Every structure is written in C-alpha cells, then in structure tokens.
Amino acid sequence: MRKIALLLLIVCLLIAADYGKPADDLREHRTCLTCGMDRQKHRLSRMLLIYDGGSTGGTCSLRCTAVDMAAHREKTITRMLVADYATGKLVDAWKAVWVIGGAKTGIMTRRAKWAFEEKDAAAKFVREHGGKLAVYDEAMKAAFGDMAGDVTLPQTRKTPVYTKKNDVQTHPDCKYCGMDRRRFDFSRMLVLQDDSSETGTCSIHCTALDRALNYEKPPRWIGVGDYGTRKLINARKAYWVIGGDRQGVMSIRGKWAFEKRKEAEEYTRDHGGQIHGFDAALQATFEDMWEILR
Questions:
Q1: Average pLDDT in the 11-22 region?
Q2: Which of 109, 117, 238, 271 has the most CB atoms at less than 10 Å from its CB?
C-alpha cells in the first residue's frame, strides 16, 4: 500500500509540474495582457512574465512586455521567458540572443525584435533577413526607444479649444500613478480623445504611457502645463526643455514645457537643458523609461 501511495504521489507531482511548465502559457494566457492580441497567432514573439509571488502574465511581444513593465513598476519580474523564433519554444529572455531590425515587420512595432536560444540560429536569420545581433538590454532599450515612433500622434486639421476653466479640479489625480495633479500643475498634461473623453496625467512620462497603452486611439489634442505660468497650453506647439539641473516628474531627466520660446531660453540659462519640440520630448521620455526600470 505504501508503494502504491508513493507511486500515486509521484504521478500527482509530475502532473502538477507539467501544468506549471511554460508550454502551457498559450492555454493560460491566450491573449496579450497589454494589447489583447492572440498570442497563438504571434507565438514566435510571445513572452511569459513570472512575477514575485508566482503569478504570471503573457504578452504578444517585447513591445507589450516593455509597456507592462512601465505601467506596473510596483511588480517584480523574477523570470522572463520569450519564444525562440526558430522553434517557438520558450527560453530565458535575459540570456537569449536577440535580433533587432531586418526585413520582417515586428509585432506591435515597426522595427522587429526577435529572440533566439542559439547564436547560430540568430546569425542565420541575420544573413537571410538582415538586422543585428544584440543582448536583452539592447533589445529592450530599442523597444522603449521605438515606442515614440510607433505611437506617432497625427496632427489635427483644427485644434480644439479646451473650454473648461480648471482641468485640475476635473482630474485631480493622475490616471496612471495617482499623484496629485494640483501639486504638479507645472508638468501636468491632459489628453482629449475624439469621443470627447479626457485623461489627466501628472507628466509627460504618464502621458507617454497612456499613448503606448491606447495607441489605437489617436488624440484630438494634448495639453500641458506651462512650467512658468501653470496655464494649460498646446503640447505640440510648446517649447520643451529636456534636461537641466532639475529632476523631472516620474523621471530623472526633466522635460518642461513653455508657451513662449523666450521663457524656455531663460530657463536654460538658469538651469541648463536643451530646447526641443514635442516629438523629441516624447522620444526622450520613452528612452528614459528603460533607464528607470533597468
């Protein structure tokens, strides 16, 4: 009887272990937790995230993994798996050989990022399709850096006017980090959608995150607090100062907006930094996300 009981215990343990294998990730996480796409359809780029505590999450790609990491900084990832592009098998993403770019279009991004368990397989892919070999850090840095281009914001023919008197009262807290927008009125932002919905954030960091999560909903207008006057101004027409000696909001490197170039120039004389347009500020924001997370 003891032998039978022991045998049954071993069988149960093997079954339990089998269900915990990464091979089951497509059954347990059929859709991407970030974009909702079918992970079976994109099984050669899919990823599996294992968090502290044992919970798991599945994404369709490195891009959506990057967005999840930025959106949930409170979560600790203890293990990260990615599909080997050559075999479809899940392998260690941190140890994989990555290929950035090439002739094949990426998943959720223009520039592809594919993972391979074996360097020879990655090198063969590069010979056939182009791209360059990279390690995980380089691939993830590229994923964040490419987000600005992937969520390119279209220009509207007619710029709407924000008629509400006080957006801070309407949206007192940042949708993503929960910080008090009244306290950060000098960096706050407001996104107006075509359906008349609004999203209030504390900074360009959280607005960038909003754009990455809602890439399919181009905004009609984006406002930002003038660093000097605190007035809500058009973010696209603003003069942005990137860098300088003042730490940013939700970011190490500051990104401040000014309605008038003269005021931006005065700021750079006093605190450093460089004057750019909105697109450059958004690009810098996505790049800085990885520097914060790594």
A1: 43
A2: 238
User: Which ranges constitute the DSSP H helices of the chain?
Assistant: 2-19, 25-28, 62-71, 119-129, 136-150, 167-170, 204-213, 261-271, 278-293
Total domains in the fold of the chain:
2
Task: Evaluate if residue 10 carries a pLDDT over 80.
Answer: no
Nearest to 160 by CA among 186, 198, 205: 198
Does residue 145 sit in the same domain as residue 219?
no
* 92 falls within a domain: yes
For the chain, helix, strand, coil in percent to 5 are: 35, 25, 40
The crossing angle, in degrees rounded to 10, of helices 204-213 and 278-293 is 90
Q: What is the pLDDT of residues 126-181, one digit of tens each?
A: 999 999 999 999 999 999 999 998 886 555 545 555 556 689 999 999 999 999 99
What would the mean pLDDT of 212-217 be, rounded to a whole number? 88
Alpha-carbon distance values, 13 to 1, 10, 17, 19, 264 (Å): 18, 5, 6, 10, 65
pLDDT above 50: residue 42:
yes
Q: Do 126 and 176 have their domain in common?
A: no
Give the single-character DSSP code of 178. -
Name the phi and psi angles at 156, rounded to 5. -90, 145
Question: How distant, in Å, are the alpha carbons of 45, 159, 216, 217 from that of 195?
Answer: 33, 15, 13, 9
Query: The tokens of 38 are what?
Result: 């079918």
Shared domain check, 287 and 192: yes
Is residue 126 located within the same domain as residue 211? Answer: no
What pLDDT does 294 receive? 82
Tokens of 150: 């992937």
Q: What is the pLDDT of residue 217?
A: 84
195 and 88 in a common domain: no
Range of the domain at 223: 167-293
Q: Domain check: are 122 and 172 in the same one?
A: no
The helix or strand, by DSSP H or E, that contains position 80, with its residue range, turns out to be strand 77-83
pTM recorded for the entire structure: 0.84
